[in-house]
Amino acid sequence: MEKERAKEILCVLKKRFPTPAWSRSKRDPFQSLIVTIISQNTNDRNTGRAFENLSRRFSITPKALAEADVKDIEASLRVAGLYRNKSKVIKEVSRIVLERFGGSLDFIYSSPQEEARRILMAIPGIGPKTADVVLLFCAGRPTVPVDTHVNRVSKRLGFASLASGYDGVQESLQSLYPSEDFLSVHLTLIMLGREYCKARKPLCKACPVNQLCPSRQVGD
User: Fold this and answer.
1) Domains of the chain
2) Predicted structure pTM score
C-alpha cells in the first residue's frame, strides 16, 4: 500500500518537474565532486557562479587545484558562502586524489558500489551525500543522495521517520522505489522542497501532492 502511494507521488512529481536533460549527460567525476563541495549550503545560482569563477582561473583537475594558492581559490568561491572552508577542502581533496589515486576517480566505475562509496568517504571533506551524488550522476550507481530538501520532504511525506538520519532516510526511499527511479526520486524531491515544501511556511495548499501527504495541514 505504501509503495503504491509512493509510486503515485512520484508520478505526479515527474509530470510537474520533468527530469532535466543535463542530469542524464555524462559528467566528469572530479568536476562533479568539486561542484558538490561548492554547493553545500549554497543555492544553485551562486554555486554555478562560483564554479565558473574557479573554471576561469584554473583547470578543474586534481593537479591544478592541488597546486593552486588557497587564497586564489577563495577569491573564486567568495560568492558561494563558507568559501574559506570550501577552498581548504577543495585543495586538500585535490591533493589526495592526485597522490592517492593518480589524479583519477575512475574506480567509481569499476569498484563495487559500497567499496567505491567507502573510498570516497575516506577522503577528508567528502561525506555520504557528496559520495552518493558522484556515484549516482557520474557512474549511474543505484543510490539516492539525501540533501536537506530530500530529508525534509521525505519525512513530511511519511516516507521516513522524523528520527531518521541520513542512512535511515536513504534506506526508506530505496525500499519504496525501484533502482531505475532513484535519479527521479532525488531530483523531484529536491524540486518539491524548493518550490512548495519549504522549511518555513510550506505551500501545502498549492502543493501538487497535497492529497497524498499526511502533513498537508502544515502551513494551511
Assistant:
1) 2-21+144-212 (1.10.1670.10), 25-139 (1.10.340.30)
2) 0.91
